[in-house]
Every structure is written in C-alpha cells, then in structure tokens.
Amino acid sequence: MSEPTLISYAEVRHKIRDADLLLFRRRNWYTRAIAVAGRSQYVHAAMAGWWKDRLMCVEMTSGGGRAQLLSNLVDRWPGVIDAYEANALGQRFSREKALRAMIGITGKQYGWLNLFHAALLHLPAFRFLVSPDANDIETATWPPFCSQAVALADRKGGVDPVPNLADRLTEPADLSRSQFYTYRFTLMP
User: Fold this and answer.
1) Which of the residues 84, 141, 148, 179 has the least number of beta carbons within 10 Å of its own beta carbon?
2) To the nearest whole number, what is the mean pLDDT of the chain?
3) Whether pLDDT at 23 is above 90
4) What element of type H or E holds 14?
5) Which residues pair with 182 in a beta bridge?
C-alpha cells in the first residue's frame, strides 16, 4: 500500500463489518522499534465487532484481551488505524464465529511468551537453527499476542488468513500482506 486513504470515521463506520481487520501503524519511538522488527509499518492487529449499535475494537494488548469503542481509539490516534475488509477471496467464512472467537480472548493475559518466540526468528543466527513452522494446531497453552489472536479467530471462522505460517508466528505485517484481506481506508476523527 502506497498512500493511505484518509476518511472520516463517521462517514465509514457503517461500512466496517464484524471480523474486519484493524491494523495500527506506528505512532512513537517504541512502536517504531516494533515496526522495524516486524518488517512493516504495522505494529498491532485487532478485529472490528458490532455490539448492538456500537462498533468495537476487540484486541489483545499488553494488558490482555479487551474490547473498547473504536471511535475512542480513532480520536486518540488519528490516521493510525487502517481498516481491512475480511474475506477478500470470497471463501466460506463465518464472521460470527470469527468474532465470537476473538471476543473469547477478552480478559485473558497477553501472550508474551509466544511473542518472544516469534521475535527470536528475526535474529539472524537463530533463524539458521530452526525450521519454518506452518503447523496451525493449537498445541501451545500460552495465551496469544495480537496478530496471533486474529489469525486464530479467523481460522475459527473457517479461513486460515496466512497459509503456510503457524498462527503463533503470524505478525501484523503478515496479515497486511494476506490475500484474505483488502485495504479499505485509514480512519480519521
């Protein structure tokens, strides 16, 4: 994606659907380090979900799984949140099942150990010692980190958004490049 399409949240909130992907761009020096390590402009992944007439951001943050009003996040970070449409390939995908799975992470702890394992693969020497992991079987009992939670939820909805990569290694950059999603717009207050 070259230039973001900046659009007022009020204009497009009704176009965002359950289980659409929300990707957050870097916004300070701390998130810049994450973006560099992740080979992308994105540092965080979340899922959109409607609760009655409220559009929520369901996410796994360093404080754990939570849901909060998307409008509040857009006000706090204008031009940082990109909305991607899920199911760009037109596959059999249950937005309801995916969102239900994502809501299931609320209240759970953040997956620091899984994040550490994914980060290790960016170290040049370590990369030579391990083989690629494409196994999506949920053998780990540790809680997920942000993009891992989104990948797990989408698989519960019936689609693996990043084939040939284990969910526990899926980063926001991987989701942004997935053919399962299509960039729509960047949210402004």
Assistant:
1) 141
2) 85
3) yes
4) none
5) 85
CB within 8 Å of 147: residues ≥ 6 apart: 44, 45, 170, 171, 172, 174, 175
DSSP 79-128: TTEEEEEE-TT-----HHHHHHHHHTTBTSPP-HHHHHHHHHTTSHHHHT
**Where are the domains positioned within the chain?**
6-188
What's the angle, vertex CA 183, arms to CA 158 and CA 77, rounded to 5? 110
Q: How far apart are the first and last CA of the chain?
A: 21
pLDDT (tens digit, 9 = 90+) per residue, 124-167?
655 555 555 556 665 555 688 899 999 999 999 999 999 988 88
Distance CA 70, CA 16 (A): 11
Taking the C-alpha atoms of residue 167 and residue 146, their distance in angstroms, rounded to an integer, is: 11
State pLDDT tens for residues 41-71: 899 999 999 999 999 999 999 899 999 999 9
Backbone angles phi, psi at 107, to 5 degrees: 90, -10
Please name the fold of domain 6-188.
Answer: endopeptidase fold (from Nostoc punctiforme) (3.90.1720)
Q: Which of 74, 75, 42, 71 is nearest to 146 (CA)?
A: 42
